Amino acid sequence: MEDDRVESLFAGVEYDIMELRMRESLMQRVMHGMKTHLVDKFEAFVAKQPNKPFLIYDDMIYTYEVVDDMACRVANIARSWGLKAGDCVAILIQNEPSFVYTFLGLQKLGIVVALVNYNLTAHSLVHSISAVDSKALIVGSGKELLDAVTDVLPDLGKLPVYVQGVSQQNLPAGITSFDDLMRDTFPIAFSPSVRSGVTLTDTCCFIFTSGTTGNPKPVFISHLKFLRNSFFPAFLCNHNQDDVMYVVLPLYHSTGLCFGIGATLVAGSCLALRKKFSARNFWTDCRKYKVTTFAYIGELLRYLVLQPKSELDGVHNIRAAIGAGLRLDIWNEVKERFKIPRIAEFYGATEAYSGFASLTEKPGAVGRLSPLLSKFDPDKKVLVRYDVATAAPIRNEKGCCVPVKVGEPGLLISKVPDDLLNKKLYKAHTKETEKKFIRNVFVPGDVYMNYGDSFVLDKEHFVYFHDRLGDTFRWKGENVSTKEVADEICLLPFIEDVSMYGVPIPGHDGKAGMAAISLSPNARLDNKELQEMYAHVCKELPSYARPLFIRHIPMQVLTGTFKNKKGDLAKEGYDLDTVKDPLYFLDHENKAYSPLTKIKLLNFIKSKL
């Protein structure tokens, strides 16, 4: 037993030494750069390299000077509204140049920017805008965005709404053209003194996370946290001023925002931006724009692998891919087929204080958690045993959490820094902060954050993602709150209760939504109700949150605390050989939830979903 303990202690020690050396050298450089705000770095690069390409979009090149010109116009417009440092403005803009210069223009005045998910509609959209006490809403171009905002305009009260891409004569009453304002505004620069009172610990922006308890929650992102995350590409793959970073991930999320705008600005490099991911055009874009680094989520790379092989697969200038969620089953194929010299995998959460980063490029691993590295880890990350049914930590006879052994799935927790113990994670969601914390974990009074994800350690202490726990699952690169979806479906008059959970689908990362519904007394589930349910979820929920499968169960099974018991339902999924209850699938062709058969299931899985 003693020999096993010693062997475990020194397993992979050569990786530990290499990682500690890399951490030291890279973090010195990173910390040196975290002394000024992101917008200060932008303005410094504008002065230093005004004619250098800053942004490439749809074959158009925007130099640092051009983007600054537009950002100055935005700042002057916001100033004319009477806004000042610390005020909040919500933006609902897709991946396009206006997102970049609108964000930077508001930052010039020290305005907090709320990055609203542009897939949201109806109640979720209103909730997100209202939760941050925004003084104005700026909407990007596109009919879908305009329609979504017009539909909820009465619910926004007196909030001023400005829309890009449309002149005033083509807008409904109550909405103002932002393009007209930009045209009539001079690009006069502001002195940095207008934001001199904004510290690095103040809020830079709000990034929304679905979390585990319903509506999207705005997470406080400080200037310091934004800067730290923006330096990640430099930390992981030496992203520098000569690089071109390709980003197809949404800019309203941490990875797209920090690896897109953030990484570009801290390095003085160039960002190649695309509105939406296209597997067919991905490598063409990379070759055309001479991309050297790109940001990914695992599902993106899986779509690329599913594309027909081409002799051009490895023809590009890419030296590194940086992202999260690349699973072991396709890791080697991605690296070898597409000839990517370095894959830099990491793991983190929007509201978290810590995470993992793979510096050794072990296939499938998100990082390391060895005894030696743990000694130098200020966040004290630990994997502990948990109850599969409740996703809660299991405690021993002394009331303490129990670290897992090698090969045993464990819930990730990390120690909350003392100076952050009394700070909220979410705006307008005080109680939700406490739900993320676990107290008296190993000793009385200590506090750890619960990440809600489980991981597994191998014998060399490499860490591998295992599963998303609790009431959240991930689909199409988005977190889906089971409670939010269930609450929405329950608004239908013929639905009594809903158990919402995620189910795996072959060939896809994450889990797709499945809802087990029980009907109200005397209600029926015929074509009329199935069409009504389809129309309701398509109107009220973003595409990634809509249940792909419906299971009609006689009644819900509850736990001792009256929560829906979903473990067995999730295990059975949509297996037609196991499930005897009626099953339905999201049938866009017939605009209804249609009965599921084996042939329809096979065709459904083969479709783009």
Features:
single chain; alpha/beta; Luciferase, domain 3; GMP Synthetase, Chain A, domain 3; 8-stranded mixed β-sheet; 28 strands
Outline:
Helices cover 33% and strands 23% of the residues.
Could you explain the architecture of this structure?
Helix 4 (about 65-80) crosses helix 5 (about 95-110), helix 6 crosses helix 7 and helix 9 (about 225-230) packs across helix 11. The N and C termini lie far apart (about 50 Å). The strands form five sheets. This protein has an eight-stranded mixed β-sheet with strand order 2-1-11-10-12-13-14-15. It has a seven-stranded mixed β-sheet with strand order 7-6-5-3-4-8-9, with helices on both faces. Strands 16, 17, 18, 19, 20 and 21 form a six-stranded antiparallel β-sheet that branches. Helix content is about 35%, strand content about 25%. Among the domains are: about 10-20 and about 350-470, Luciferase, Domain 3 (Luciferase, domain 3); about 65-220, Rossmann fold (3-Layer(aba) Sandwich); about 470-605, GMP Synthetase, Chain A, domain 3. Helix 13 links the parallel strand 12 (about 295) and strand 13. The protein has about 600 residues and is α/β, with parallel strands linked by helices.
